[in-house]
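Table 4 source record.
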Amino acid sequence: MFIGLTGGIASGKSTVSKLLKDLGIPVIDADQISREIVKPNKPAWQKIVDYFGRDILLSNQNLNRDKLGEIIFNDETAREKLNQITHPKIISEIKKRAEKLKEAGEGTVVADVPLLIEINMMEIFDEVWVVYVRRETQIKRLMTRDQIDRETAIAKIESQMSLDKKKGYADRLIINEGTKDELKDKILSIWREINAEKNSSNCS
């Protein structure tokens, strides 16, 4: 089974990803891939520098992610251009890694992809899991996590697709309104369900 895991900022997606890893399930991290493909002199790095200029580089030639983030946060055209450069490479690498894991005998593989729905990746997965919190919970958690004011938190949240819209794409909706232990119990319960379904199909 190939599972796509997504959510929104401060929803708890990274915690779910870690809990799945703790269960021994291989997790492909799209954010990690996005960092790897833009290392100095890689094709995506070159295209980004050609478009945005060398002002977005640090002294060691790595991208200044804060500066680039600020540009795309305020400029939709620039954000779209960056996505055009990076998204196809990220998707291709996720597929490649998933195939390798399956060939190695892994029955279940998870891909943690923040923009899974936005870049229309749903069809490559057997199931899409969305980690969901109410908007007010999301605002408060983001304010606490990043030590920012409410207005800044709302601006960050509104720069993404809303969780209310994302939940419409979920095969499994993981509501994360409680404690970390409660979230862990939910993940364990889902994992038991999946194993029960596998055993049932193997017996039939």
